[in-house]
Amino acid sequence: VQLQASGGGLVQAGDSLRLSCAASGRSISRYAMGWFRQAPGKEREFVAAISWSAGPTSYADSVKGRFTISRDNAKNTVYLQMNSLKPEDTAVYYCAARLAIVIVTDGREYNYWGQGTLVTVSS
What we know:
Helices cover 0% and strands 50% of the residues. It has no helices and 11 strands. The protein is globular and about 40 Å long.
């Protein structure tokens, strides 16, 4: 599975962005999908995840209520809608795929990773 993240950019605090993660190579309909981010000088951290059935989701406390993960299996794409962005959301955002039903927050459990898209939020 190849993953291509896009949609990042430079925005102001309070703005919104929608990231997309387009998959190719095979259908991701049986994959749990996740978004992670890595800020400069910091370790990669979990942001959000969604099950293969688009049912259960999980969010980091820092983004709960502001970010929404969704997926369109027909388009082989996963999205991350980010609202009320804060400067501390500035990071490179990565999408990842896990061949499993259960969603997890540990990046080491994911099998495939995209190349990342940069989100910069100015104050």
